[in-house]
Write a structure and sequence with these properties.
With 355 residues, the chain is of the alpha/beta class. The chain has 2 domains: 240 residues, Periplasmic binding protein-like II (D-Maltodextrin-Binding Protein, domain 2); 92 residues, Periplasmic binding protein-like II (D-Maltodextrin-Binding Protein, domain 2). 42% of the residues lie in helices and 17% in strands. The protein contains 16 helices and 10 strands. A 5-stranded mixed beta sheet has the order 2-1-3-10-4, with helices on both faces. Strands 7-6-8-5-9 form a 5-stranded mixed beta sheet. α6 links the parallel β6 and β7. α1 packs parallel to α4. One of its GO terms (molecular function) is metal ion binding. Keywords: Iron, Metal-binding, Pyridoxal phosphate, Signal, Thiamine biosynthesis, Transferase.
């Protein structure tokens, strides 16, 4: 069983601080060799994208883009998809990667607390995948009221998000017993706890495939909406390598459009090619691909405005969630949607991603 990292275990601390120091003292170089304009003659050389996790179906759009040659079409000689777990923020700050896949919580934290010169320029997940997972026969936590009197396993690195969840929903912490846990949900599956701080795209699928009848209480639907699988770029690249970043976004949009329109093919590509050495199973990867394609990546806003766009309302909701978690930042400091606006203005056909 592959367990999932937390939202805050990457993207903070010594690695980010060291990378920020490096950036500020040595003037990080250009994030790839961009060409003026965005015509057919554009050539950006090699580029790199830091993935936040292992090469599983979480990154099916990146794999589809690479396999279909969309990065090459966009003007890149190659695009290195670097597996995690790793900090998107540290990689981008240091100049080691051109784009990082992270989330609003981790990126917002390093911007607010360390002054990192970063922006989120798009989001794959319109809905974050965090959930309070229980089982129909153990806990059966389907509503906020069902939490009363329950024992919940919460990882230390997710404690601040758990606290924010209780705060925004005005739940008295004394009515719930919290047990410190790691990431393997076996204690839930064995009935040792009633609920588990989990991912819709990981532990919940494990429970489903084991026939354990999972019950989910998604944080995004219960007071804590925020974008995840976000694209993080440096302010320097946004200003000086703008066409290169836009070219990456164009290829990413095409890849993710293919993946969400054929999640089975995307899962097959992951299992057989990009994650072939990880022991992935078609059953789990296909379920993750389906959940992403139907529940997380697409929304009424993306249908109207295109993949990766983050509406003003969702930006405000994300910032409110960060505030509840003790992170003080505003939308203009965290997000820059201008690149995607230009991408869709220049490529209006990309808005209609559904075939």
């Amino acid at each position: 069983m592959i367990t999932r990292r937390s939202v805050t275990s990457m993207g903070k601390g010594v690695a980010v601080a060291a990378a920020l120091t490096l950036l500020l003292t040595s003037c990080a170089g250009d994030a790839g060799s961009s060409a003026e304009g965005s015509g057919d003659a554009a050539s950006f050389g090699d580029a790199s994208i830091q993935l936040s996790w292992i090469k599983n179906t979480e990154f099916m759009g990146e794999f589809a883009a690479d396999d279909a040659g969309y990065f090459t079409e966009a003007g890149f000689d190659s695009v290195d998809l670097i597996p995690g777990p790793a900090s998107a923020e540290a990689g981008v700050i240091s100049g080691n990667v051109d784009l990082g896949v992270g989330n609003a919580i981790s990126t917002g934290t390093v911007i607010a607390e360390e002054g990192a010169p970063l922006k989120i320029i798009g989001a794959t997940y319109q809905k974050n995948p965090f959930t309070i997972l229980s089982l129909a026969g153990v806990g059966n936590i389907a509503t906020l009221d069902d939490l009363t009197g329950k024992t919940i396993g919460v990882q230390a690195s997710n404690q601040s998000l758990w606290d924010a969840f209780l705060k925004v929903n005005e739940i008295d912490p004394s009515t719930i017993t919290v047990v410190p846990v790691e990431y393997d949900p076996t204690p839930l599956f064995n009935g040792e706890v009633d609920g588990w701080f989990a991912y819709l795209t990981n532990e919940s699928i494990d429970a489903e495939l084991a026939g354990l009848d999972p019950v989910n209480l998604p944080l995004a639907d219960n007071g804590l909406p925020f974008v995840a699988e976000t694209f993080t770029a440096s302010e320097d690249a946004i200003a000086n390598d703008r066409e290169m970043l836009k070219a990456l976004l164009v290829a990413e949009i095409k890849g993710w459009a293919d993946a969400i329109n054929d999640p089975t093919a995307a899962a097959t590509l992951t299992v057989d090619t990009y994650g072939k050495d990880l022991g992935l199973t078609m059953e789990k990867e296909t379920r993750q691909a389906e959940i992403q394609a139907t529940d997380l990546v697409v929304s009424p806003d993306t249908e109207a405005n295109g993949l990766f766009t983050i509406s003003d309302a969702l930006q405000k909701e994300s910032v409110a969630t960060l505030k509840a978690a003790g992170i003080d930042i505003d939308a203009a400091t965290l997000f820059d949607m201008s690149l995607l606006a230009e991408v869709y203005e220049e490529n209006p056909d990309l808005v209609a991603y559904s075939k």
